[in-house]
Amino acid sequence: MMKNTLVVFLILSTMTVTFAQDTPEKTKMIGTDLLGLLGGGIIGGFGVFKNDGKNELSFFSFYFSPENENITAFGGGATYRIYRKGEGMRLFYGASVSVFSVSWDHEGQSDPVNTVSLWPGIEVGYRWIWGGAVTVAPYLGLNYGLGSFEADDGTSYEFEDGSKLEGGIGPNFGIDLGYLF
């Protein structure tokens, strides 16, 4: 996973040097979530800044299948962020929604357990921009899982660390790494 993170960082660094421009002219962004990559996921997204960087609308997709676990998830969603000072940087707050499908094998059940869930959420964070192109935005918030996560017998998936895949209120956090163009 560290190798993937290093490759993404090197590509973004090279693009920054090659295509450096002034920040106000850049209204589009591609990126990933570093915590998702480190956790075994593949996450990618595209976003646009509107109203002189006061609003950001981003769309993302992800695939998650951790090693030593018997679970796979994939899905996508959207995030809307508001920057009070504009320019698409500094303090932001916003809302997000994601939909994903989860599949896992359950002992005693011949077919895999397949679920689809909806996760609306809220978040607050801070975005830095370096060289007019590379951006990092850590964020923290809450989301709420809607949908069934259980097998036919009512069992929820349990990860190796003892945590369970369940709905309800949960944390929403990450570190976005992106490139502006």
Features:
181 residues; mainly beta; 2 helices; elongated
Number of strands: 8
Please give the oligomerization state of what you see. Answer: single chain
DSSP helical segment count? 2
Structural class label: mainly beta
Mean pLDDT: 84
Biggest β-sheet: count, sense, barrel? 8 strands, antiparallel, barrel
Low-confidence stretches: 14-24
Shape annotation: elongated
Q: Note the beta-strand portion.
A: over 45%
Description:
Helices cover 12% and strands 54% of the residues. With 181 residues, it is mainly beta. The protein contains two helices and eight strands, in the order αβαβββββββ.
Structure summary:
The chain has helices at about 1-20, 35-40, and strands spanning about 30-35, 40-50, 55-65, 70-85, 90-105, 115-130, 135-145, 170-180. The chain has about 180 residues and is mostly beta strands. Strands 1-2-3-4-5-6-7-8 form an 8-stranded antiparallel barrel.
Topology record:
Elements: H1 2-18, E1 28-33, H2 34-38, E2 41-50, E3 55-64, E4 71-83, E5 90-104, E6 113-130, E7 134-145, E8 168-180
Antiparallel strand pairs: 1-2, 1-8, 2-3, 3-4, 4-5, 5-6, 6-7, 7-8
